[in-house]
Amino acid sequence: EEMDLSKRIPESQSIDWCKDSVIVHKGGASMPGKQNEAISFVAEYHSNISALIFTRTYYAHCLPVMLPFRFIAKSIKYLVSGDWRLLKPLALSYRDFVTHRSTIHHS
After folding, report:
1. Of these four, 9, 17, 19, 100, which has the most CB atoms within 10 Å of its CB?
2. CA–CA separation, 107 and 55 (whole Å)
3. DSSP string, 10-64
4. What is the DSSP string of 53-82?
């Protein structure tokens, strides 16, 4: 989201940062067991589809290289790390990106 925001800000405005700030992202670490797995699934789906949409929106010329490279690299990462269950949200995010559908719905 922050990359998309930085692209949307008009050139007449600027982005500032605080070099002393610290941001800690725990990625659902406080959620126990099965619920944490569900959060990881949803987070991974959105992480993938967001990257695809961002690339299509701002760097469409890179899609022919980015699409297969990201899919293969992430697949290898999941298989090597033993986190093969994340192959499903990866595949779903690619399918939804290509077909303009949405698998994950929010209440």
Report:
1. 9
2. 27
3. -TTS-----TT------TTTTS-HHHHHHHHHHHHHHHHHHHHHHHHHH-GGGHH
4. HHHHHH-GGGHHHHHHHHHHHHHHHHHHHT
How far apart are the C-alpha atoms of 2 and 15, rounded to whole Å?
Answer: 11
pTM for the model: 0.69
pLDDT, one tens digit per residue, over 25-78 is 665 555 445 555 666 888 899 899 999 999 999 999 999 999 999 999 999 999
d(CA 18, CA 59): 28
Q: Quick one: DSSP state of residue 83? A: -
Using the structure block, give the residue that is written with the tokens 């949803």: 42
Q: What is the pLDDT of residue 70?
A: 96
Determine the Cα angle at 15 with ends 14 and 21, to 5°: 155
What pLDDT is recorded for position 12? 83
